[in-house]
Amino acid sequence: MMTGAEPTCEELTVDDLVVISKDCRREIVKMVKRANAGHPGGSLSVIDILVGLYGRTLRVSTNKPKHPDRDRVILSKGHASPAMYSVLHAFGFISETDLHTYRVYNGVCQGHVDSKWTPGVDFSGGSLGMGLSFGLGVTLSAKMDGKDIFSWVILGDGECQEGEIWEAAMAAVHHKVENMTVIVDVNGIQNDNFVDQQMVMGDLAAKWAAFGWKVKEIDGHDMLEISTAIDWSKTTVGPCVILARTIKGKGVSFMENNPAFHGKAPDDEEFEQAMGELA
After folding, report:
1. CA 5 – CA 223 distance, rounded (Å)
2. Which residues contact 19 (CB under 8 A, 6 or more apart)?
3. What is the pLDDT of residues 39-61, one digit of tens each?
4. What fold characterizes domain 14-277?
């Protein structure tokens, strides 16, 4: 899709992106099944967002994935690594063989995204809440160096319970950051239960707006809305956040809105059903 030494972006059509997302969903389920571990629910909720970014706006290079002038994607919800790996495979950064190393010792595709192991990964995930601070640092550093790069930080809605998120949100406004957009995967479920059962989040849009951010709410599975929101954020002055309303486990009926599949692999029967539904 995107090749060459210099960072480039080939804008694909919405229909193209829908097809890629469907293929990626199949790879997500297959990875988690092979490993008998992983996080399918949040990977299936965020996949359309990632495909939209890679297919519509990111300036990246498959030949030089660490090119200093590339755009950055910071997947702060790093446990959704199967989504990232499926996209990196679809866009030519890693191979089918690499996908088979998911959660394998010394494999290219570790359980959480890791910039040491995987070409095309810009941030090493682990404890939640770190990604926005990291993205802010990357963006401010690029500004100081006079580089015209764009950073995209992807958070979970449960992750927005972390205090560090809001410290970084304040700092971004204070420093008048422009070349960075946050996308929140608002799927309503976190590790143990529904988000509001763990801690009531209230009006996320109002919270971000109160911190001085420009806010846009979208259907995170509608590729046209995703593409439109991407364009909006790149032409809006000041820090922007896109609240993408999604369904955890999207595309697999028994995983949808099911907290049990936050971090659980399907059994053999469930796997066959999932593959049938994603055919």
Report:
1. 28
2. none
3. 999 999 999 999 999 999 999 99
4. Rossmann fold (3.40.50)
Q: List the domain boundaries for the chain.
A: 14-277
For residue 270, what are the CA distances in angstroms to 2, 155, 190, 252, 261? 35, 28, 22, 9, 12
Q: Which residue has the tokens 């990977």?
A: 43
One-letter amino acid at 45 equals: S
What phi and psi values does residue 168 have, to the nearest 5 degrees? -70, -35
**SS3 assignment, position 261:** helix
User: What is the DSSP code (8-state) at residue 214?
Assistant: E
Strand 180-186 and strand 72-75: pairing?
A: unpaired
Alpha carbons 160 and 155: distance in angstroms, whole number: 7
Residues paired with residue 234 on neighbouring β-strands, in sequence order: none
What is the pLDDT confidence band of residue 2, given thresholds at 50, 70 and 90? Answer: very low
H or E stretch at 242:
strand 240-245
Structure token digits, residue 112: 């959480």
- Measured between alpha carbons, how far is 121 from 81 in angstroms, rounded to an integer? 10
Predicted confidence at residue 3, as pLDDT, reads 47
CA 190 – CA 161 distance, rounded (Å)? 11
The string of DSSP letters for 190-258 reads -SSSBHHHHS----HHHHHHHTT-EEEEEETT-HHHHHHHHHHHHTSSS-EEEEEE--TTTT-TTTTT-
* Residue of 269, 270, 268, 267 whose CA lies nearest to 254: 270
Going by C-alpha positions, the residue among 240, 260, 238 that lies closest to residue 249 is 260
Instruction: Output the pTM of the full model.
Output: 0.95
